[in-house]
Design goal:
heterodimer, A: mainly alpha, two-stranded antiparallel ribbon, 15 helices, globular, B: alpha+beta, 7 helices
Chain lengths: 411, 257
């Protein structure tokens, strides 16, 4: 039994048995996550580690993390379709699929996060135009539709499907209008990446997160966009590399990877300039105005100063230098390590913006609490990763995701 | 983002004398009973409690014999500039009715908890579990206060239903419902306070006691400098108590006296 006829032309894939065995592992994690979702829906959010102090927890941190890492889709699309950076042609399909996975995964988690999931549509029906969350709800949903539209032509290019004349033409026409969707996607993604940051920046009664504004947007709006576009391309490249390691085949030329690293490094450097300015303005302006000292907003290991140092230096400045300097960027293991560090840095940022903001006692007689997620939060998060592995596995096996694959593996 | 301060002709508010409060908790019990707050299934973790009004213990952190404590009842402070209102994506909470009480529409709330993240006073509570009342206790529920399902955020509303009663009563008696006398409308916690530490009325009305008390140099508001403009004032002649109403840096002096 073989599914060879469904593979893209001229490529090699593992046996169907091995593929099914791999999918069984993926499904096991997925089933665990689905069971956790059932427990959350039937038992309520009491089964999570969230409480009256920690209104947001791992679900939100995970959502913010994957959405930032999925930014490779919109930013690569913007650079390829609108700025015409031709080298990205060889990784753009993967970027779109990763974006689709990250956004759909985040939406799946959000259904668990809302206390009344059946009322989730109220966000569209009774929108509060002053709320950053309303902007997130609208933009994230619209961008999910755009990502779906961008994913469809890749599916239609499956060898068997493409033989159907109608689907062949449909895929072609989708490609023709893709620059339009890349533009719409970039616009939508720009706003909701920003609004996710804005959600925290407008909390004027939470000095850890509150920031001054530029028109109606607090600084965090722009910082979230910049940090997302800094980490997204690098993450896309890392996924391609991981797929290469797992399949034993070369999928993307190293020059493309180095280009993705260069984009990440450049955006990270721009981000860090503003992030350093923001941190300084926050420490010397917002905190003293709130009656707080720099030391007072850090606590223990879970919310220690080491997190800020790690975010800004170890997983910020250090990888930025490595990615900007061509010699280190063109050394594969340094490139991979630096992009991994950028990803870790952005996740630390999303963690502190969420957990530390809520943990920090604002009333002088209040106290710090530490948030610990439960299995009911880890399981769906891991299931989303498994869901991503499932989509990527199917896409790699049956769709022409990597245009360079045949050429790179000819020898 | 609109960080607006809405002005109202009537601004219901409270002044709580922390030098009188003994921390007895009668206000908490009254609040729970009046507002149909179900007894907790498991009260071992206070971070899941449903206490619209919570009494905090404050300490001057001095060793005996200089040690001193104060008790601070904290209802929803009905901020003049509430952070919870502009963040709500579905307008489940708003500050728009004459009286300046921050409302909460339970049937509209989607349970995103963004308002909880926004409130520095921890005055908003999430229904982590479906409310269950012991058999027979349903007979004690207040008929004009809706019960709330699991998955929505709720909070103190200054016993808003009592405000409605008072207005109706005034109409029936041929009085202006927008010019209630002092005492026509008071929340359950204020009514139940055995020491008279809680005073309620219209902060805008010079004839109401709260108006005068709120102007006292001994009056202060929680986290004044965050500019949320609460409609609940605290009162204490003890400086260390007033100082704990806000975060003060070493070189700063406390407001008031």
């Amino acid at each position: 039994m073989s599914d060879k006829e469904l593979w893209p032309e001229g490529v090699q894939r593992c046996s169907l048995k091995l593929f099914i065995a791999w999918l069984a592992v993926v499904f096991a994690v997925l089933v665990w996550g689905v069971y956790a979702a059932y427990v959350v829906w039937s038992g309520g959010l009491i089964v999570t580690g969230m409480d009256n102090y920690f209104a947001f927890g791992l679900y939100i941190i995970f959502d913010l993390g994957v959405i930032a890492l999925g930014a490779g889709a919109f930013f690569s699309g913007l650079l390829y379709y609108l700025v015409r950076v031709e080298g990205l042609k060889n990784i753009i399909n993967l970027a779109v699929i990763i974006g689709f996975i990250c956004y759909s995964g985040a939406l799946l988690i959000l259904t668990l996060e809302v206390g009344q999931p059946l009322r989730a549509w109220f966000g569209f029906w009774h929108p509060n135009v002053h709320s950053m969350l309303t902007e997130v709800i609208f933009c994230i949903t619209c961008y999910m539709l755009v990502l779906t539209i961008e994913f469809i032509p890749i599916i239609l290019e499956n060898r068997k499907l493409n033989k159907i004349k109608f689907l062949h033409h449909m895929a072609h026409n989708f490609h023709v209008i893709m620059p339009l969707f890349a533009g719409v996607g970039a616009f939508l993604s720009f706003f909701h990446q920003g609004s996710l940051g804005g959600m925290y920046g407008v909390l004027f009664s939470r000095p850890y997160a509150f920031r001054e504004g530029f028109f109606i947007w607090p600084w965090t709006f722009f910082l979230f966009i910049l940090s997302a576009v800094a980490s997204g391309p690098g993450f896309t490249m890392l996924v391609a590399t991981l797929m290469e390691k797992m399949t034993g085949r070369k999928l993307v030329d190293f020059s493309v990877k180095a280009l993705m690293g260069k984009i990440s490094g450049t955006m990270l450097a721009i981000y860090l300039v503003f992030k350093y300015l923001d941190t300084w303005a926050w420490a010397t302006g917002i905190l003293p105005r709130s009656g707080l000292t720099f030391s007072e907003v850090f606590y223990g290991v879970a919310y220690g100063k080491w997190l800020l140092f790690s975010e800004l230096v170890v997983f910020g400045l250090f990888p930025a230098v490595l990615l900007l300097y061509s010699k280190t960027r063109n050394t594969p293991w340094i490139l991979y390590s630096a992009c991994t560090m950028v990803g870790i840095g952005v996740i630390i940022n999303r963690y502190v913006q969420t957990a530390q903001t809520l943990a920090h006692p604002i009333m002088p007689f209040d106290r710090w609490y530490v948030y610990v997620p439960t299995w009911a939060e880890w399981a769906p998060s891991l299931a989303v990763i498994a869901y991503g592995a499932l989509i990527l596995s199917l896409a790699y096996r049956y769709l022409p995701v990597f245009p360079q694959e045949r050429k790179l593996n000819q020898a | 983002m609109v960080l607006y301060l809405k002005e109202f002709k009537i601004k219901w508010g409270m002044v709580i004398d922390l030098d009188r409060c003994t921390g007895c908790g009668a206000c908490m019990v009254a609040c729970q009973a009046e507002n149909n707050i179900a007894p907790p299934v498991d009260a071992s973790n206070k971070r899941y409690s449903m206490t619209w009004l919570l009494v905090y213990q404050l300490s001057n952190k001095q060793p005996y014999p200089n040690h001193d404590v104060a008790y601070m009842p904290r209802p929803c402070l009905q901020c003049g500039k509430p952070n919870c209102v502009p963040v709500c994506p579905v307008i489940a909470t708003d500050k728009n009715q004459e009286g300046g009480i921050v409302s909460q529409v339970n049937a509209r709330c989607i349970g995103c908890r963004y308002c909880m993240a926004a409130c520095p006073y921890h005055a908003r509570y999430f229904n982590w579990q479906d409310p269950v009342w012991p058999e027979g206790m349903e007979k004690t529920l207040t008929p004009d206060v809706s019960t709330r399902p699991r998955g929505v955020v709720e909070k103190c509303l200054f016993c808003h239903h009592r405000y409605m009663y008072a207005r109706d009563k005034a109409r029936i008696e041929g009085r202006d419902p927008n010019a209630l006398n002092e005492g026509d409308y008071i929340p359950a916690c204020v009514e139940m306070c055995p020491t008279g530490a809680m005073v309620f009325g219209d902060l805008q009305n010079p004839e109401h006691k709260v108006h005068k008390l709120s102007k006292s140099p001994y009056a202060f508001r929680l986290l004044e400098r965050l500019n949320t403009k609460p409609q609940v004032y605290y009162y204490s002649k003890r400086e260390w108590v007033r100082k704990q109403g806000d975060n003060y840096l070493e070189h700063e002096t406390v407001g008031g006296v």
